[in-house]
Amino acid sequence: MPPRLLAFDLDGTLLTSDKRLSRANKAALEDMARCRAVVVLASGRLGSSMMQYARGLACAPALLTLNGAAVYAGADRGFALVHAAPLPSLHADALVRHSEHREFAVNYYIDGMLYTVRTEKTAKWNDLYYAQTASEYHVLDSLAGMRGRSPFKIIFVGDPTVLDKEESEQRRRWGNELYIVRTWEYYLEFMSPQADKGKGLAALARAYGVDLADVAAFGDANNDIPMFAVAHTAVALRNASLDAKAAATHVSEWTNDEDAVAREWERLKKT
Predict the structure, then answer these.
(1) Where in the chain are the domains?
(2) pLDDT recorded at residue 61
């Protein structure tokens, strides 16, 4: 029997490099639903950004958003929130203070919206993120007004060499108090330790009454590794990072630009 619940990272996995859901992958997701499997879209993006792909499907996918910080059942279940893990205000405030007047952009996610401060130094990084995700920004003069609040996530978006130094510094500072992950060379993400794709996937499996032995996860990046650790079947695409491949139970011979999801679904149906 094929898996009863299947989760798919978006960028670099389900989507092509130019951010399209291919006809073959779309048909595969709909075939999974016809086989009574639960389809999950799993991404670091906001739910509103993910919905552009969910709305085009003839099924009701669950949404594992913001890297697992906010997880929702599908539209057929009223998009019920099944897992929420906001970033404590103490940590969020410290990250905002640290980021002031830096040369990287800061993405601040709260209440289903994305906030930032746009300056001459950060504009190109705001534009890079928008080009990759089509997530709508709400631009503020300052993030100081967010003091004392608990966002679901904060991202530093900037030059990879600058983020390398930031990652090293922030890991030394916070240790296990925060979940810190590099989801792309230009993105450094900060979340609650209770927010990762693995915890979000486990919460969805419980909500749908699916045993983890019947769960499959597909991904390409290091933030997919917690999801791989939870799922019985973990598929890394050929274009995946070395760490993601090492954590997977199967490495596909195809990339995200070669309909790997559709091809692997056909393989799973035969096993």
Answers:
(1) 5-85+195-270, 89-191
(2) 98
CB 39 within 8 A of CB 29: yes
Q: Which CATH code is given to the segment(s) 5-85+195-270?
A: 3.40.50.1000
Measure the CA dihedral 126/127/132/133, to 10°.
60
5-85+195-270 against 89-191: fold identical: no
Domain 89-191 in CATH 3.30.450.40? The answer is: no
Residue 135 has pLDDT above 90, yes or no: yes
Sheet holding 62-65, edge to edge: 81-84, 70-72, 62-65, 38-42, 5-9, 215-219, 233-236, 250-251
Residue 25 tokens, joined: 């992958």
Report residue 84 CA to chain centroid gap: 14
Residue 256 near residue 15, CB atoms below 8 Å:
yes
Side-chain half-sphere exposure of 57, counting CA atoms within 13 A = 29
The answer on pLDDT for 1 being more than 90 is: no
Residues 59, 24 contacting (CB under 8 angstroms): no
What value does the mean pLDDT take over residues 223-248? Answer: 98
Instruction: Tally the C-alpha atoms within 13 A of residue 115's C-alpha that lie toward its C-beta.
Output: 16
pLDDT at 45: 97
Would the pTM count as exceeding 0.85? yes
Is 81 within 8 Å of 71 (Cβ atoms)?
Answer: yes
Cα 85 to Cα 66, 162, 200: the distances in Å are 10, 28, 9
Count of C-beta atoms within a 10 Å radius of residue 98: 14
